[in-house]
Structure formats: structure tokens, C-alpha cells
Amino acid sequence: MSIGTEELPRPLRADARRNRERVLKAARAVFSAKGREAHLEDVARRAKVGVGTVYRHFPTKDALLEALAREQFEILTRWALEAEAEPDPWAAFNAMIWRGAELQASDRALMEAVAAFKPGVARQAEELHASIERLMRRAQGQGAMRADASGEDVRLMMCGLGSVMQMGGDRWRRYLTVMLDGLRV
Hints:
By secondary structure, the protein is mostly helical. 75% of the residues lie in helices and 0% in strands. The longest helix is centred in the middle third of the chain and has 24 residues.
């Protein structure tokens, strides 16, 4: 390899690609239920592959959790982009936040990732944040959202929401209602 050039990773063989997808699907279920307490052996067992296969694709539990968080943030980003296309920005913002919260509440690993607000996850969510901020500016322009509300406020709200969710029960619904009421004019 010469200086200044990067070697691109080779595409995975079909069987390796299938195994990776099986591992991710199993990991979604295992980590969604158990959060960070889950073990990679649990993932391998559910995926019906050897634990070595899991480690070949994801050398650490954090690497696997990061891949799962990236997938979830891709879903959230898609929802935010869809919300931007709606004619009523406040209603779209409100619905998108509730939809994201429901996803977060149903997925313990995502809940923990959002509550911890790791810089790696934050970088992966840049497009999501940009979309939310555009939607917020429209809602502010409509006069439906506080003029001083920022995307940072929403990120902190969602981190706090993740912490409340970890307490268990449905208290998070009240917490989210109060948070959204605080943003509305």
C-alpha cells in the first residue's frame, strides 16, 4: 500500500454477511431485553452461531452495542426526516419525539445508550440532530415552540428521559409530557 492511499475493506462473503445479519438480529433481541448486562455468548446462542463468529464481526460487546445504536439512530433519523415533510411542524415534532420515546422505552440497550450519551453515539446522530433542529426552527417560526429552545435542549431532555425510563414503570410518559409542555408556547 502506498502512502496516502487507503485499502478498502473487502466485501463479506455471502455466508459471512448472513452470519453478521443473524448476529445483529439476535443481538437486537438480547440487548433490547437485557441491556448491557447481556453476554455475547447469549447473542451467539440466539443467533445459532459460535461465539467466535460473534467476535469475528464484533470484537467487543461495545462494538456490537455501537452497531445496534447506529441502526436505531438511523431509524430515528428517518423518522425525523419524515417529520420535516409534515405541514404542521409542532405536531410533527411532538409525534416524532413520542415515537422515538416509545422506541427507546422498548429497547433497553437504546435507553442505556441515550442515557449515557456517549460521544461515539452522538457523532452517529449528527444527521438526526440537524433534522430535529430544522423542524424546531419551523415550529418556532410558526409560533408554536419557545424561541429560545435548542436542539441541545432536546438532546438533554432525551438523556434525562432515558434515565427516568431506567427507573421502570410508565413515569417516563409524565416526564415526557412535562418536557414537551415546557417547549411549547
